[in-house]
Write a structure and sequence with these properties.
single chain, alpha/beta, four-stranded antiparallel sheet, elongated, RNA-binding, seven-stranded mixed sheet
RNA sequence: GGGCGAAUAGCUCAGUUGGUUCAGAGCGCCUGCCUUACAAGCAGGAAGUCGGGGGUUCGAAUCCCUCUUCGCCCACCA
């Protein structure tokens, strides 16, 4: 193929789709369960089936793809297993809105069957959107193995897990206060009910005191404590609450058993304000004496804590539910008529107004506190007494904890391990039933016979009650979405069948995700992995940061601060996107991107791609002549620059490999970036040009090295920028592997590491930079060739300058570089880091004052450095205690700076400063 | 209430085991260049008392304490 035809600007959109299809058609993406290669497995965190690609996915999946491509090139049987999650509440909400918009109907109007049918249509139409979008960023997933948590086979696994856990005694049906979303009309787990700060009020309400005979009780109620709330009124007790509307569900007031203020009140009766309901005063150690008046109202049906307290009180208490499923006041006789049917917040206002009127409101103060909200719709959760299914978590947590503690499971960065450990240690039972229609329906059947009441739990619907033979009806509820996600690492591979995939690809290796779902998903996968597979599902959990805007706010649809990855791909290319997020995502930190300035954010990545493109174009178009294979290279023909670049290559191979192994993707990106741009493009390619255009043998060597170095660079860059590297690979003559995606990862060749060459070429670079600096300072036009005289500080320096004299002259645009002594006449002076001195004769153009000033500045800087290093060397403590090599290095510095200082002094004299 | 993280150039951030080759990169800014791979480029340059204070050490951006400011997670004071 003719590289000369390649455009000078890299156009990603012209090639990306083709390249991707080529990978797919060549089977690059498909893992082989029967290969001999060691497996490497990542299971994707399955995006919600309704999701559209956002930057968080962009980051998450780019990281996974970099790791997968890296290990694939290293020869492992790499499987990246993709798929989607049915996302119960989220998806149901989306389609509910859709139905409302389309038909103006609620899901209840359609009925369960029809509504679920509608969701399936939606899923079939748009469910693979996000997976298709992942292709655009180059994700090399094994699409043949795409899974969905509601696939038949997968669903079967979910139900089996429920049945097994039930029969193992780890799933039970419980009656307790759970988190309820009055908007989604379902129960939520603790994790799904997230705390958010809210500005509310704390209401101090007077509960009228009633004697046991129904008479008012007189006299002081508290001998001491100096607490004002209850002192003034002897006929009422003040209670602080944020939720006055729940008082109709109160069953008692309680105070702390040691609270002297109320000691005499125990056993007395008070009346719920605005009602005739009388309730007792009791004690509970759970009461915080310092809070409010120290008297707590107990509302067992609408507060989990109160539920516990009521359970601990002597005697049986009813637990009246006064707020219905939709968050409205109930119609119980306990609820005042004027409040019945009102929304809980309206009811709160009305109740408070009524209390005021009755002079039963002692105080109302602003109050900021954390309240649980539905994680899907952000409605304030209503604690609610109901029957739900729970998983007993403690036994499952034990091996998951052990795995972390004995190092079988590690976190990157490590600190997240503590979060994981803490959660597992404090773990509580998991409410897994959801009052939704979209999801895995719970495989439990209730006997219709009231006298029997048996529950049959089975994988397949029973014909009749297994105890009494009577008719049964299935539980209406479905399972929490996460109850299917936690099986992802093995249910995707065909569990419970003993499949080849399970044999080959379980357990997996790396899990890449954000910290937010450590509890929801990561910890639970580990538990399920141990319980059902007997092994951890992965060995490393790599936790990456969150994508935020420049104000450090999380990118979100509602804030409108998101970035559309597809727009970035079309404007800057997938590789630019990938490079930007990888280079900007050091381990453990958030990724800050500017949604208002895509240019600033992504241009550097695009520019780098363009650089790769152009250096590639140049190199490829110069490979026409004969090329010597590496195994026939004769080092005798190498120039200094050749040895230098080959040594640099070995280092960048080591650096990149180590960085990727340690999940330091940003280090890998930077290492290869600087190698390609600085070492290869700016120096080696420039150095090599005369040989390419000139002498035959030199050209042959140069071409061989150029080809080899560039080929290695493409391999190293491929995991991060797969498209452009694959495209350029296609033009590489005689590539051993037809596709870079399946090519081998480079191994460093130790004999090519050449410290001397690196040292010497470094001196050459410094000399060129010094002359360039002089040119710039004196505005010498590029066309004007000047001469320079260098005074090498050592034989090493002399040999280096001699070896690359032609390079120095070319790159510094020198007519001639003289190698000996000091120059004559007026000119500019520079001293190199190694002590070598350069003189550039500039005749009249020179400004002696300026030169003197510059040399004095230099001298002063060196004096400062010398002072520091000498102080150190004179310090016995330092010389004695610091490691020998550190001291040695300081001595070398001192010598080098002293030499530079001497050279400068001589210059100053020569100029007559 | 408990825990964690961050603060380095105008901006976004590197800086792993303390050692003036670690005070850096990219962007932005200033100067000069359309030098036949690349103006999405080349060359040169200015710019930071490493959040404040204290300590450990021969030596601190790096370790310890403390304060300030942001951010996150967990949490049954209603």
């Amino acid at each position: 193929m003719a590289t000369t035809q390649l455009a000078s600007r890299y156009d990603p959109s012209a090639i990306e789709t083709d390249i991707y299809n080529r990978w797919r058609d060549a089977g690059v993406l498909t893992a082989d369960a029967h290969s001999d290669a060691t497996p490497y497995v990542i299971v994707i965190p399955p995006p919600n089936v309704t999701a559209v690609l956002h930057m968080g996915h962009g980051l998450n999946n780019t990281i996974q793809d970099v790791l997968i491509r890296f290990e694939r090139m290293r020869g492992r049987e790499a499987l990246w297993l993709p798929g989607t999650d049915h996302a119960g509440i989220a998806t149901q909400n989306v389609v509910e809105r859709l139905v409302a918009d389309e038909l103006g109907k609620r899901r209840q109007d359609l009925g369960r069957e029809q509504f679920v049918e509608r969701i399936w249509t939606f899923v079939h139409e748009t469910g693979n959107t996000i997976l298709k979008q992942l292709e655009a960023i180059g994700a090399s997933c094994d699409w043949d193995r795409t899974r969905f948590t509601l696939d038949d086979e997968y669903s079967r696994a979910v139900l089996k897990v429920f049945v097994d856990l039930y029969h193992d005694g780890l799933i039970y049906r419980g009656h307790r206060v759970i988190h309820w979303c009055p908007r989604c009309l379902t129960a939520l787990s603790d994790e799904e009910a997230e705390f958010r700060e809210r500005d509310d009020h704390l209401f101090h309400i007077r509960y009228p005191v009633v004697t046991s005979a129904g008479e008012r009780r007189g006299g002081a109620i508290s001998p001491g404590g100096g607490e004002p709330p209850n002192r003034r009124l002897v006929d009422s007790i003040v209670v602080a609450t944020t939720r006055p509307e729940t008082m109709f569900g109160d069953v008692a007031l309680v105070f702390h058993p040691d609270d002297e203020r109320y000691r005499d009140l125990r056993g007395q009766t008070i009346r719920i304000p605005l009602t005739d309901v009388e309730i007792p005063i009791e004690v509970s150690p759970r009461v915080e004496r310092e809070f409010g008046s120290g008297m707590l109202k107990v509302t067992p049906a609408h507060d989990p804590n109160d539920f516990e307290i009521a359970g601990e009180l002597e005697g049986d208490y009813e637990m009246p539910v006064v707020i219905d499923a939709e968050g409205r006041m109930g119609h119980e006789p306990r609820v005042p008529e004027e409040l019945r049917g009102l929304d809980r917040y309206e009811a709160r206002e009305r109740a408070v107004a009524m209390l005021e009127q009755e002079e039963l409101l002692a105080k109302k103060e602003p109050y900021r506190h954390a309240v649980r909200h539905c994680y899907r719709c952000h409605t304030v959760v209503e604690p609610r007494l109901s029957d739900q299914w729970f998983v007993r978590m403690k036994p499952l947590a034990t091996p998951a904890l052990a795995a972390y503690r004995d190092g079988q499971l590690t976190f990157v960065p490590e600190r997240w391990g503590a979060v994981y450990e803490n959660w597992l240690t404090e773990i509580r039972d998991w409410n897994i039933s959801r009052q939704l229609w979209w999801g895995h329906r719970i495989p439990a059947w209730y006997c219709d016979a009231p006298s029997c009441g048996h529950i049959t739990v089975a994988l397949d619907p029973p014909a009749a009650c297994e105890r009494c033979g009577g008719s049964v009806r299935q539980d209406e509820d479905v399972l929490d979405t996460w109850f299917s996600s936690w099986l992802w690492p093995f249910a995707t591979m065909g569990w419970p069948n003993a499949t080849d995939d399970l044999a080959k690809f379980y357990p997996g290796h790396t899990l890449v995700t954000a910290a937010e779902i450590i509890f929801f998903w990561v910890a639970r996968m580990v538990m399920a992995g141990f319980y059902f597979m007997g092994e951890r599902p992965f060995s490393t959990v790599y936790i990456h940061g969150t994508v935020r805007d420049t104000l450090h706010r999380k990118m979100s649809k509602s804030l409108g601060n998101g970035i559309d990855p597809l727009e970035v791909v079309s404007r800057y290319g997938a590789d630019a996107l990938r490079f930007t997020v990888v280079a900007g995502a050091p381990v453990g930190t958030d990724v800050i991107l500017d949604p208002n300035d895509l240019e600033t954010t992504f241009a550097p990545g695009r520019n780098f791609a363009n650089k790769v493109w152009n250096v590639g174009r140049f190199i490829l178009s110069n490979l026409d002549g004969p090329v010597v294979a590496p195994d026939r290279w004769d080092p005798a023909h190498f120039e200094l620059a050749d040895r230098w670049i080959l040594s640099r290559v070995q280092r960048v191979i080591v650096d990149t490999t180590e960085a990727l192994e340690r999940f330091r993707l940003n280090d890998a990106a930077n290492a290869i970036y600087h190698f390609l741009w600085d070492d290869l493009a700016d120096w080696y390619v420039e150095q090599v040009k005369p040989r390419l255009y000139g002498d035959a043998r030199g050209g042959e060597v140069a071409r061989a090295i150029l080809r080899n170095v560039f080929e290695t660079a493409l391999r190293l860059l491929h995991p991060i920028m797969p498209f452009i590297t694959e495209e350029l690979w296609q033009y590489l003559p005689q590539a051993r592997e037809p596709l870079l995606a399946k090519a081998a990862w480079p191994r460093p060749k130790a004999p090519l590491v050449d410290d001397e060459a690196e040292d010497r070429f470094g001196r050459v670079q410094a000399l060129v930079a010094a002359v360039r600096s002089v040119r710039a300072e004196y505005n010498v036009p590029p066309g004007t060739e000047i001469a320079a005289v260098v005074q090498p500080s050592s034989t090493d320096a002399l040999e280096a300058f001699n070896a690359e004299q032609r390079t120095i002259e070319r790159l510094a645009k020198l007519k001639h570089l003289t190698m000996d002594g000091a120059g004559e006449g007026a000119g500019a002076h520079q001293v190199l880091p190694d002590g070598s001195a350069v003189f550039v004769p500039l005749g009249n153009a020179i400004d002696v004052q300026k030169e003197c000033a510059r040399l004095r500045t230099e001298t002063a800087r060196l004096d400062g450095q010398l002072r520091g290093v000498r102080q150190k060397l004179q310090n016995e403590q330092f010389v004695n205690r610091a490691p020998a090599d550190v001291v040695q290095r300081e001595r070398e510095k001192e010598q080098s700076w002293r030499e530079q200082r001497e050279t400068l002094t001589a210059k100053l004299h020569a100029l007559g400063c």
